[in-house]
Amino acid sequence: MKDKKTIIVGVTSGIAAYKTLDLVKTLKKDGVEVFVVMTKSAMAMVPASKFKKASGNKVYSKLFEKGFDYTDILKIRRVDHIDLADKADVVVIAPATANIIAKIAAGIADDFLTTTLLAVHCPVIICPSMNVNMWNNPIVEENITKLRALGYHIVEPEKGMLACGYEGKGRLAHIKIIKEEVLRLLNIATSLKGKKIMVTAGGTIEKIDDVRYIANRSSGKMGIAIVEECFLRGAEVLLLRAGSAVKPRYIISEITFDTAEQLQKLINKNVINYNMLFQVAAVSDFKVKNTFQGKIPSRKSVIIQFQPRKKIIDQIKKLNPRISLIAFKAEYGLSEQAIIKAAHNKLKESNADAVVVNDIGKKNQGFQSDFNEVIILFPDGKYKKVLRASKRVIAKEIIDTLINKHII
After folding, report:
1. Strands (E), 285-335
2. How many C-beta atoms surround the C-beta of residue 267 within 10 A?
3. pTM for this prediction
4. CA-CA-CA-CA dihedral for 369, 375, 378, 382, to nearest 10
5. Before 95, cis peptide (omega within 30)?
6. Do both 305 and 383 map to the same domain?
7. 274 is a domain residue
8. What is the C-alpha separation between 16 and 163, in angstroms, rounded?
9. Domain boundary among 188, 216, 241
10. Are 321 and 312 within 8 A, CB to CB?
11. How crowded is the C-beta side of 221, counted as CA atoms within 13 Å?
């Protein structure tokens, strides 16, 4: 495994592109391997030769260079933009024009830079630079909001005199600030290196007959945000994912399940091999007592009986006493004090190292939403409230808090 960190610096056609030369030089001085990818328009701003000299590496810009032959690709099974994406520990786009921001938000891949961005599996930093009116345009604001929710890191522009003669917010952030963010994310990218972490995600189903089942509304988005954050921080992860749950963006080792019984068997088999378990999956509290064979006729009434299910979460520490256990608990319509009390009870019942609890009764957050608001409770009675944010941001806050509490 490589020890030297690799940064991809994407350069687009903002007038501030010349400042990015200093970013490349200072990163290079710190012993970081830097590869520069330029858009066609960026090369009209600053010659690619200057970035080649600053980085000491080839500058990438064209998907199809002179002499391209698809048969060569088929022989060696290597593509430049995929190779580069696989090397990257962090990607930084500086300056990021309104155009590149819109492309990333829409998933457009029509050049070397945007194609590489769709293939990377590392943190991406976007450093906008544009006219103040462009920065304040609702379309740009919407795109930035979308990218934040997707987990991109935004280094906001500064206020000041702009190249166009306007004064206001839109100037590229100071290179020192951008570099500090790059180095911070490089450190985060290895903060869980050596840890083996298992995460469960999605909701279980309960069979009624051979055609029908009962399920809950869990989409698995919170669990996926957790496992992706652990993956991006260098952990070896195993995802136990409900078949109906959303899928992760990255290539992550996973096993799927449908029922609580299947999930229990997977945990029983694997939990001894891991340092930490995030039990995020929404496991049914009840099982159907009187399941039916075949298909229940739809023209007659039927009584379905439920009985409480043994809690999977309460068995984890018995299976692996050394594991760090993070329990997730959903409550509905309770006061904050009542939610904290319920989380405290769950801590005692499961012997968990922390409980993350949320109110799924609140609108536009929790089940099926991209947003959440949680309280993280610890055995010493202390807790941290994480206000409403995207689930990717919530996942970052949870991991950071657990690291600071020395639970991970």
Report:
1. 286-288, 306-308, 324-331
2. 24
3. 0.81
4. 170
5. yes
6. yes
7. yes
8. 9
9. 188
10. no
11. 19
